[in-house]
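Entry 12.
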Amino acid sequence: MRAVDRVDGPGIKRALVLLILFLLALPLLGAESRADEAPRRVLILHSYNYTFPAAAAVSEALRKALGAFPGRLEIEAEYLDLARRPDVAHASRMANFLHEKYADIRFDAVVMIGIAGVPFLLKYRDIVAPGAPVVLSDITRATFDRMRLPPDFSAVIIDYDPAKTLELAEHLQPGARRLVVIGGNNSDDRRWQEAGRKAVEAHNNPKLETSYWFDRSYSSLLEDVSRLPDDTIVLFLTLFADSEDKRFIPQDVAAELAKASAAPVYGIFETYLGTGVVGGYISTYQSIGITAAEVVREILSGRDVTILPPRASSVAAFRVDARAMKRWGLQQSNLPPGSTVLFHQPSLWEQNRLLVSATAAVVVLQSSIVAGLLFQRRRRRQAETSLRDSEDCMTFAAVSASIGLWQFDRTTESLWAAEPCRAILGFEKDTPITLEGFLAAVHPDDRRFAADTLRKSKGERSAATDIRIVHPNGEPRWVRIRARAHVDGQGAADQLSGMFLDVTDQKAAESEAALQRQEVAHLTRVTVLGELSGAIAHEVNQPLTAILSNAQAALYLLAPETPNFVEIRGALDDIVQEDNRAGEIIQRLRGLLKKGESRFESVDLNQLVELTTTLVRHELIARRVTVETELAANLPLVLGDSVQLQQVLLNLVMNAMDAMASTPDALRQIKIWTRATTAGTVEVCLKDRGPGITPADSKQVFVPFYTTKDRGLGLGLSICSTIIEKHGGKIDLRNDEAGGALAKFSLPGAQRWELASMNGGSS
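Predicted 3D structure (tokens):
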């Protein structure tokens, strides 16, 4: 054991030496760390002494707000006492005192509380806190601008508005006939005297006889206010010194004035509240201190004070003392909106409002329960009777209108349907109405649409789908399904309700109307072709004449013993070519004359324009009308019925020729152009040089049977509008800015039309 001690002894000594060295190094490390974290220093200068409550309130709020600064912060405060000792010698002594006291300290910011200290700081800043940026805590905008302070001075702007305080007084004393403005006699007092005079002049109330009490002793002032009539408004500004040069604290003066006055006293500072003064338009000193702290924190964080504009404190408001109002019999109901009432003593009702209200509520509740128990059975019976009557009326209305109500649960796929649904769906009386049975009764081509309506309908808006139902006797019936989803709290539409409506008669009427429209459109085409009969005969006669001439020439060439077969072959080729031409003309005319259902296919509108102008070529020549076309290259195809679209073009061209009947021959021109738009549509435009459309006609051009022609039926443009709308397009007819009329219709491209058709479904 002793051998072990001898071996470990030197090791223990080395450990002790290292521990001592570590402990000696710790203060050095801490000193280095503290040196890296040097504190920021702020000097708060009070213009007055510690007895001024306003300065104390601002200082306290400032200190609390600066407590949120993230780094180390040291705050020094000094009272300059410039109100009681405004002489130059005192200011010089204070400057030298501060210079010696803080000779080894560099301040990062200086806050001046009170406007009286600004001249002191302007004169002695280089002695007290050289180079430190300054924040003035309480200054009006006018004073700040007038002083023309150095650029490293910022400020908290406060809104003292004596005119607003007068407005409050007039609200509370609408019968006032006299105004007395009270102020003191030192430099600060004189500044507020000027502000008070300007406020009274700006307020300009001729009913008030105004007096200014600025040059009176304190004792005479108290005696005079005690003799004022009760219809007087007393506005107290400040009184730091009276005419005898006695020094006072304005808050103490306000308390004595309010106590001695026979008329209500109003003030402009927060410190006056609670002294007996009624109130005024006042900003809080707490808000001034908080705003000043915000500016100081920005400066301490590295913000350049020269770019910090003066910052306004919180907005002032009307603040009144409820006790003072009660003393002078002033009514709270006369206060301006948004006023703050302080020192309000709640009445017995206000103190126990909750208890009284709860008791009354219990009594009312008990009475209601008793009344409910007495009338519960009677009301329930009335409700049951009303419900039965409503159900009977609804059932009768549904049966009369061939409407069947139903509900569908998507979770269980259970279908409930009212009794009228059986007749609509063709079910036997005892056959249960289920989802499988309903889908089995639907026409196979419409079964998918019906299933999607029940399983995939979304939203609370009603959606409609028309399907065909095949009754057991083989009779097809059209049924409209109206469905509406009910969204639960989680947003899932599990319940669906709606109605079945038999629309077979409506569908039959629509089919008959469509057939009649086709008949009228066909009649219009035949009428137009009848007008073009001479031109058509000439168009057909040309290839026939050419065929006859070439046949006679071939016979002549066959007469010699050695016929010229080359020329004969050329004549025969001409015969074949002219025959094909005549066949194409007749085929086009046949297409326009024939009747039948619409057949949608890909149509080249450029080609359709060329065919139409060729068809009316001789009519154009006869009427001395020229046609100019500008057909866009690579124009997308459209999906439509070529015959119906050609009818639209033919009608527009004929209308243009008719419109230019009175136009001089040299100016008769029709311009037709096509273009593709960025919206995926294709436009066809046709412009004439006629007289245009009158304002009265422009609103009715597409109305059926409305015409401006002596022999017109008024159906051409109406049919054109119907055809274009059926093709998913739009048609327009208006006057052109350069003269004449401009007709334009647009159609969706083939790909866009097919996409829209697929998205539209059968609803």
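Annotation: The chain has five domains: 40-157, 162-281+316-342, 404-502, 504-597, 599-763. The longest helix spans residues 353-400.
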